[in-house]
Amino acid sequence: MTSRLTVGYYVHHQGLGHLQRARNLGDRLRATGLEVVVLSSLPRPADLDESTLGWVELPRDDEDAATAVDATAHGRLHWVPRHHDGLRRRMSLLSRWLDEARPSLLISDVSQEVALLSRLHGVPVLSVVLPGDRGDRPHQLGLGVSDRLVGFWPATATSMVSGLPATAASRLVALGGLSRYAPAEAARAPAGRRRVVVMAGRGGDAWTPRELDDFGARLEGWSVTALGPGHWVDDPWQELCAADVVVTRAGQSSVAEVAASRTPAVVIPAPRPHLEQAHTAAQLASGSWPALVLEDLPGPQAPQVLAAAAQLDGEAWDSWCDGRAGDRFVEVVAAMVEGR
């Protein structure tokens, strides 16, 4: 690779997981000599030095969603509303960047429309596949035209995604759970009062302060730390490592970072499109990973549930997140850039 080779990295604007993943992987790709440019509706993070990742802020295309006309193009795409100024400017800017930057490839994390647009410009596409049922027409199209596909779960987790045609499934490589933190850095807190960390989330699937208060009130003998609305922290690593149990939703980043901390978990999937978290939770429930899967925050039996979870062997998370997912991703990108 040379420093003059450019890779585009499209980042979906909802939630924090896509952005965290792009920053993690973008730094790794830059270390190989690639120039990495993020393409996203998100603004450049204030703490991201301009000398690191390039950034192209795209116009939003989800305004006036309630009045959008034929937003799915007869069910063939996810979001392409007719006569939408933001969509037109967005796709025009992407096309201009593809023409001027002449990237070696584009990473889509995730947009089937962006994957299709890139391929229509003759630019190879590496698409990130999320867990869940991806058998709808837009996924069939976007993933179908992608040159390679990657998923951030272990190869032994064979039920994370469904609905892919055989031709696409054959191009899918499972890289393992991707965490911002190296598993070797985890260290258990000294013995004392048992601690539970509740990763409550930030989006529409976050537990409310009332729900968290009610849950904490049921946990006599436990020290409860809630990370969520009103108590958000950008770096939860020390809290995760000090906990005896973590209660979390089944988002990819959340599960990977709990796994990296080697802390047993209670995993409660949130209702998400395409059954994304339901697939992850079902996979965890069917395997040997140190997680108890529930449908909701436990009621009166909460102390017993946490006690049972605390008895699980946190080191068994090693097969979910071994710390090498980022290295494997770089290897996939290198092969594509080099034409292998």
UniProtKB/TrEMBL annotation:
Domain of life: Bacteria
Domain Glycosyl transferase family 28 C-terminal: 241-285
Molecular function as annotated in GO: hexosyltransferase activity
Protein name, as recorded: Glycosyl transferase family 28 C-terminal domain-containing protein
Organism of provenance: Nocardioides mangrovicus
